[in-house]
């Protein structure tokens, strides 16, 4: 269980898209059922939960970003996606009541709400509206994972996968070359070399804080 003090659901969510409506609905349902959350602040690099650990509950990412990854027995890591404010983490694993299927690590300082599994299941059993909201969140999570799988599997070349990653906007918060490599199933050295090539061709510009797309059409044509 996370070591944090219980707080009321009274702080605004740092969310700017349609996730906000679902999250506010879920938090309202929890408040109505006299539920409480554990609010925590995590530093960069902190693991919220690890693949294979017994499930404890779900985390709502209120601010910051986190990587969602899986690993093989030989230590190879594949980053499935980058979670942003408004995402609910560990939901599928909690509903299955097994172990966490992924590892979630803070990419930058972030703030989360933790909801224990028992409380979430009780809400689903007692509130039809709460159950619908949770299922909508699960559906969105699975859709995003499917889209990420397409990013990795459909382009025939590593260059194509990197181009899709850049166009997908997953680099709003600049990732390291190692993390980018984990997202497209290649090596850090390959990512570094390809970024240098794209920069030399003036398709992108790499700064200390981000990667700027200069020629979107040319990137779209890389297969």
Describe what this molecule looks like in 3D.
With 223 residues, the protein is an alpha+beta fold. It is built from 8 helices and 11 strands. The strands form 3 sheets. A 5-stranded antiparallel β-sheet has the order 1-2-9-4-7. A 4-stranded antiparallel β-sheet has the order 3-8-5-6. Strands 10-11 form a two-stranded antiparallel sheet. Mean pLDDT is 83; it is low at 1-10 and 12-16.
Q: Quick check: average pLDDT?
A: 83
User: Can you identify the CATH class of the largest domain?
Assistant: Mainly Beta
CATH architecture label name of the largest domain: Sandwich
Strand arrangement within the widest β-sheet reads 1-2-9-4-7
The biggest beta sheet reads:
5 strands, antiparallel
Stretches with pLDDT under 50, minimum 5 residues? 1-10, 12-16
Q: Count the helices. How many?
A: 8
């Amino acid at each position: 269980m996370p070591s944090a003090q219980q707080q009321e659901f009274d702080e605004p969510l740092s969310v700017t898209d349609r996730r906000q409506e679902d999250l506010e609905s879920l938090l309202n349902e929890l408040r109505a059922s006299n539920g409480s959350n554990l609010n925590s602040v995590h530093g960069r690099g902190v693991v919220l939960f690890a693949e294979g650990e017994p499930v404890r509950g779900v985390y709502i990412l209120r601010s910051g970003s986190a990587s969602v990854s899986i690993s093989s027995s030989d230590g190879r890591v594949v980053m499935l996606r980058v979670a942003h404010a408004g995402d609910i983490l560990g939901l599928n694993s909690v509903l299955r009541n097994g172990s966490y299927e992924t590892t979630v690590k803070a990419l930058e300082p972030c703030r989360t709400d933790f909801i224990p599994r028992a409380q979430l299941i009780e809400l689903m059993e007692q509130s039809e509206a709460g159950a619908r909201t949770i299922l909508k969140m699960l559906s969105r999570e699975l859709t995003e994972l499917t889209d990420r799988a397409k990013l990795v599997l459909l382009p025939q070349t590593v260059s194509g996968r990197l181009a899709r990653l850049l166009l997908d906007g997953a680099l709003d918060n600049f990732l390291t070359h190692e993390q980018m490599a984990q997202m497209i199933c290649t090596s850090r050295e390959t990512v570094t070399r390809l970024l240098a090539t794209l920069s030399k061709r003036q398709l992108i510009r790499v700064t200390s804080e981000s990667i700027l797309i200069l020629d979107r059409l040319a990137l779209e044509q890389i297969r």
